[in-house]
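Researcher: We're teaching a course module on how sequence relates to structure. For the next exercise, students receive a sequence and then see the predicted structure as tokens, so they can try to spot secondary structure elements on their own. Here is the exercise chain.
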Amino acid sequence: MPIVKVIEVIASSEKGIDEAIQTAVAEASKTIRNIDSVYVKDIKAHVKDGKISTYGVVCNISFRVD
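Model: And here is the predicted structure for the students to work with:
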């Protein structure tokens, strides 16, 4: 039975939530192998001058340990 580790990452995007999640996974993939899933724990948006300027996500990324 494989061991699964979970890390928490925070990522942001000026375009949307989907891109913020993609960024979280892409950055984690640079140093972590065997990523199985991403769980979005929290979503937020930063507002500037009455408009959303950036979207942020807090994610748990699960991966199998070799």
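Model: If you want an answer key for the exercise: The mean pLDDT is 97. The chain has one domain: 3-65.
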